[in-house]
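Look over this record before class:
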Amino acid sequence: MDDFLLELSQEPEISRLCSVANASLDELSWNRSVRNKGDAFTVFVRRLSGYSSAALDGTVMPPDVLVDPQKSAMGDLANSALLITARADELSSMFLKAPSQVWAQLHLLIEGDENRGQPRTNNDVDDPLHLGAVPDARVIHPTLNSISDMIVQSQAPAVLMAAIVHAQLCVLRPFSRGSDLIARASARMIIKGKGFDPLGLCAIEYGQYMLGRPDYVKSLKRYMQGGVPAVTEYLEAFCQAIVGSASSVAKMESTEGVETS
């Protein structure tokens, strides 16, 4: 298999962006103050990530992320995001070896999808990001296989792989519901599974949320235009989310006072 992702990583600006993001991840991972905050803080950051992922799909970020979602359509979405994020942290190592199996497991946690655990077989798709035209269902399996092969075989930097997999899944929308949640969880698993965020404290989803939903969607639509310049602009937003989230988490003195609006 040609490692096109590794070739892409040699582009000067892409290489620079990945290096900046890696430096932020390294700084967070070796921050003794953060590492000493204990399991309760890890759980808090994980829930912050889950709620942020749900907010990117349209829910309202709660004032207290330690409170469980209410029973409603939006509450079900938030609950799915929390469950997927928590499960992703458990499956990050497995994901690097068997991505398709992990995608199926994560999709079982989606509320309201009659075909949970299975890729879609038609073009009736929930599109909370309003990305537009949906790829035909007939391309789902071969495209997922290609993405899976890339995850398992590519020697590209983890940040670039996470960014491209996230974008590919968002654009493909392989499931009738919840594809965006699984796309963001996939990026999380790659960063964690490859050892750049071993404690799962870099809340990339929170960084994306803090960028703002319009800019997040804008970056994905730019990626959809194709070509190195478009991918570079998208990657810049993705790396900005990593840097911003790592900085925010490092400054959190406790589970209080986190910006959620």
Remarks:
- The chain has twelve helices and no strands.
- The chain has a mean pLDDT of 94.
- The first helix runs from residue 4 to 8.
- The domain at 4-114+140-251 is CATH 1.10.3290.10 (Fic-like fold).
